Amino acid sequence: MGFILLALRPAAFATLQAPSRPQLILASLQRFFPLVWISIAVILVSGLIIMLQVGFAHAPVGWHVMLGIGLVMMAVFAHIFFAPYRRARLAAAAQDWPAAGRSLEKIHPLVVLNFTLGWIAIAAVLFWH
Question: 9-32 pLDDT, tens per residue?
């Protein structure tokens, strides 16, 4: 998320115009999102295994906070994937670049939200261990 927020998106906006900008961002997300799905599966399964080994009742508060925030982050990502990203892909397939750009713009604040939630989850584990 950091790369997309702090490097790819600003560079695309600084150097590219429509339709090149949404094409680049969509091509990047098309490669990035499968990695996100794999990461979600690995993080969720490994986290639940650790919580089960320790016992949910005995796990530190920070772990519970991280789990809750992680579930919210997963829901936000699922929304990104199945709503604005899907609409952007459909618009791109129809070569409706203004609509693709509008859909991609709806992704940005959600990625900022997930990026922020990720740092809050890390802080929770550090402070409530």
Answer: 999 999 999 899 999 999 999 999
